[in-house]
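The instructor's notes for this session suggest beginning with a concrete chain rather than abstract definitions. Hand out the sequence below and ask the class to guess, before any prediction is shown, which regions might be ordered.
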Amino acid sequence: MSEFRHPVEGYVFVVTYGRSGSTLLQNVINALPGCLLRGENNNALFPLYKSWCALVRSPDICRMVAAGEVSGPTHPWFGAEAIDPHAYATSLCANFARHVLRPPPDIRISGFKEIRTIAREDTFLDYLEFIRGHFPNARFVFNTRNHAAVVKSSWWRQHDPAEVEKMMHSAESVFAQFAKAHPDCSVRVHYDAYTADQSALEPLFDLLGRRPSREQLHDVMRTRLTHAT
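After discussion, reveal the predicted structure:
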């Protein structure tokens, strides 16, 4: 199997919650030259992150590495000191890109959008840091929408509005914290703002270093999406 090469300009990840307008944002990014943003993948990357966590947060592995211990074949953690968590995570993410994102050779920026938020804020933040640390030139677009509109949209109507509000507040707290910590690779956009005024997408275009023509953007924004109502 040939060596996988990451897209030359790296990655972009749209991070949001359901019914926020993320599919429209996906279409906007895919109208940009050299960009291929895949859709949702059922949070398939998150278990890979958890696998990495199992190594870097194991007290036994950490102790053995810190002590420079050399284990023998009768040791219950035989060989654990030789584990390379960074190389493991790098390989996980490269294989995810190779087999899930599958960017063609002419694509310069790849990535995906995901609406499945992580309940624990500390875990969600750490997961985003994992992505930032192991996908070359990773950039993040945090997408939000008016809460009242989300609560009344599609499947959310079947949920307790208070729980949906709680989820959105928790997610947006993470978005704000991460964007504040990493302003060079993050932007926050709001569905109600960019559907009312397309210039609200300028920070996104600046982040990716390209923008669609006025006609292309107009065509994308006026295309009706029918995947849910």
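Then share the key points. The mean pLDDT is 94. The radius of gyration is 20 Å.
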